[in-house]
Amino acid sequence: MKDAATSITMGVGSLFFYFVWKIPIVAIYTALYELTPLRGAATKPAPAVRR
Length: 51
Hints:
The protein is mainly alpha-helical. The chain has helices at residues 2-35, 37-43. The N and C termini lie far apart (84 Å).
């Protein structure tokens, strides 16, 4: 019984730290996506050239 409780506790702790670790990773990827200059340049049409 003691081994089962230890195993369950370790599993729950592992899941807790997994989700806590994902929060800063998602924040970093979101910041990089928002700050990248390539995304804005690719979505804007090129200006028309008049002759």
